[in-house]
Amino acid sequence: MGLFYNFSVALFSALGSFLFGYDSGVIGSIVSAEFDFFHAYFHSPGVSIIGAIVSTFAGGCFFGAAAAGWLAAHIGRKRTIQLGGLIAMLGCSLQTGAQNVSYLIVGRMIAGLAIGCLSMVVPLYQSEISPPGMRGFLTGLTQFMISIGFLVANWVGYGSQFIRSDAQWRVPLGVQIFPATLLFLGMFILPFSPRWLVDQGRNDEALAVLQQLHGDKGNKEFIELEFAEMLEQIQYEKENISTKISDLWSTKPMLRRTLTGIGIQVCTQFTGINVSSYFQPTLYADLGLSGSKVLMITGVNGALGAITTIIFIYFILDRVGRKPPLIFGAVGMAISLAVEAAINAKWGGVNNHAAQTAGVAFIIIFSALFFSVSFGPISWVYQSEIFPMRIRALGTAVCTCANWACNVLISQVSPIGMARLQYRFYIFFVVMNIMNGVVVFFFFPETKGKSLEEMDAVFGDQVIPHALETKQMHNVGVQDEKDRDSDA
Ligand SMILES: O[C@H]1[C@H](O)[C@@H](O)[C@H](O)[C@@H](O)[C@@H]1O
């Protein structure tokens, strides 16, 4: 039990993040020209209908994330995840059984509501069940599972194009019903967030969950201190902080939290990641590549991204903190995109093998290396750890909505930008990545190793003294890792 159980709970809840990646990724294949049965069934939908099929999903995500802010505070994190799973089952079933375009669009919208909700609540739940020294790893599982979702979607899409019936598009859409059902049912046996339980006055249950999550072996003192601090902080917040949306900007420290939370998500979107996630085949086509090679490279890129993410969150994130990797990633992405722009400017459209290889390599380096060790995982970790309990659900929801709003904007504008600006479009993102690095350097505080209750000290509104020293808590996290190793 103990940390292995804690890890398993965080990983299982990340099935919600898998659905996020899968649902975002699969539609690209389905609307592509290779899916002839899809186009025949829906009477060759034009670009505007295809645009609607793709973007109603992201629109639904925006509203799903907003609603989850209220739900997670009232019915709790666990039940909100279950509700997300249930709605995903409905949305995916509607898409799979679609009889006409409206049916499909409604299905996409409903699935969007579910994914938006899950995208906000899964990392929030993970961060509230984690010990401080492992919060980066356990919450970073969100990004890991998003990338696995994208990866599986790519390969399912690839395989399904060879089916010679309507199953060609119904199968890849239907596949998601399985993880959605598993998430809905499995969450019945997973614990509630201990912090939400304390907020509801269910203290005994909260303590029992903490003991279950962190294990009792050699950890008793840590659990007692963590629990005492949780009680004290949440009690203080209950008496002094309301849960109104205006609390997000009512004091300077709160405004700072809100701006950094929104900031991390806006910066993440402006790295340009979704140009690569959604339009990768076009980027390769601009380099003169086509056919099955493109899907192969996309798949390899996705697999490398997942591997880099897991290595980064497990070995590095909780040791070096949030800021240094963000700055490293921003610089790395700016350089990769600058090289990409130069290659496209000089050799775009020309059949030069060396230039093509370098162009592909830098797209992969951009996302599978630099994004995966920076904004990818850290955006979810950071937004889930900076708000005080009373307003955490709402604050996290606002940040996630910022993610989806920018996501819609960039995915709508990118096809036009790529066509009109060509290689100059990369330069826009070079500039944005440099700005991201500057913003992080000057405005983002470091949160590594602090307990969620200690974030008030980080943001400058500490009122109660913290019994649990950061150093001590961090050591316990490390101690736990050792226990896990010796358990194995
Ligand atoms: O590829 C996804 C992207 O579609 C999301 O917009 C972003 O927030 C995720 O972190 C990323 O992994």
TrEMBL record:
Cited InterPro entries: MFS_dom, MFS_sugar_transport-like, MFS_Sugar_Transporters, MFS_trans_sf, Sugar/inositol_transpt, Sugar_transporter_CS
Listed Pfam families: Sugar_tr
Subcellular location: Membrane
Catalytic activity: myo-inositol(out) + H(+)(out) = myo-inositol(in) + H(+)(in)
The keyword Membrane is annotated on this UniProt entry: yes
Matching Gene3D superfamilies: MFS general substrate transporter like domains
Cited SUPFAM superfamilies: MFS general substrate transporter
Transmembrane in keyword set: yes
Alphabetic keyword roster: Membrane, Transmembrane, Transmembrane helix, Transport
TM regions (residue ranges): 48-73, 104-125, 137-157, 169-192, 294-317, 326-347, 359-382, 425-444
Membrane topology (UniProt): Multi-pass membrane protein
Gene Ontology CC terms: membrane
GO molecular function: carbohydrate:proton symporter activity
Domain Major facilitator superfamily (MFS) profile: 9-448
Sequence similarity: Belongs to the major facilitator superfamily. Sugar transporter (TC 2.A.1.1) family.
Protein name: General substrate transporter
